[in-house]
Amino acid sequence: MHAAHTQGDTNMKPFGSTLLALAALLVVVPGAGAGTPGGGTLNGPPVVGPRLNLYPGYETTATFPAGTPFHLGNGFGTGPISAGNFGQVRSSPGAQEVMSGQTHVDFSLDGKNVPTFTNLFSESDGITKFSCANFRQGLPAGVHVFHIEFWDMGVLVLENTWPITFTS
């Protein structure tokens, strides 16, 4: 599902032509520095709490504390994948594909589109563009279903659905 764009919202879009590698799954990354892959320079709004990484393949927690702030963040980049860059799809082409509006990541929660903002990271080996969403109040107790779609130059290249139980 392609998230609707509203004024002031920028949906992060995946980039690139040929995918070199896919890394990471659904992982909770500690809050400090969680918004910066590989510790690069951030250009965008700050994120809150730990990151829930919805990238397919990683084993993640099936539970998370209700009412606890967190953020979603996944995207595309131009450099090689490093251990700290979980949750991004990389491709061999350059910044033009990464920055394209047709390259983005869309999130939904319980069947509803989640508005996102874009964070750009400048790293020594390239740039990374993340779609992010802050949940400043967390979520209420119960099971919530997250869905993520990676769009590479307008083509759906990867998706994942993950239920998480938020506990009180």
Explain what the structure shows.
The chain is mainly β and 168 residues long. It has one helix and 13 strands. The chain has one helix at residues 95-99, and strands at 19-22, 26-29, 41-43, 51-54, 63-65, 70-77, 88-91, 104-109, 112-114, 117-123, 126-135, 142-152, 155-167. Strands 1, 2, 3, 4, 6, 7, 10 and 11 form an eight-stranded mixed sheet that branches. A five-stranded mixed sheet has the order 5-13-12-8-9, with no helix packed on it. Strand 10 and strand 11 (126-135) form a beta hairpin. It starts with 18 loop residues before the first strand and ends with a strand.
Defining key terms:
mainly beta, 168 residues, eight-stranded mixed beta sheet, 48% strand
What can be said about this structure in brief?
This protein has 168 residues and is mostly beta strands. The chain has one helix at 95-99, and strands spanning 19-22, 26-29, 41-43, 51-54, 63-65, 70-77, 88-91, 104-109, 112-114, 117-123, 126-135, 142-152, 155-167.
Poorly predicted runs of 5 or more residues: 1-36, 82-86
Enumerate how many helices there are, as a single number.
Answer: 1
Shape: globular
Number of strands: 13
Strand content: over 45%
Largest sheet: 8 strands, mixed
Mean pLDDT: 72
Bin the helical content: under 10%
Order of helices and strands: EEEEEEEHEEEEEE
Oligomeric state as shown: single chain
What structural class do helix, strand and pairing data support?
A: mainly beta
CA gyration radius, whole angstroms: 14 Å
- The N- to C-terminal Cα distance equals 30 Å
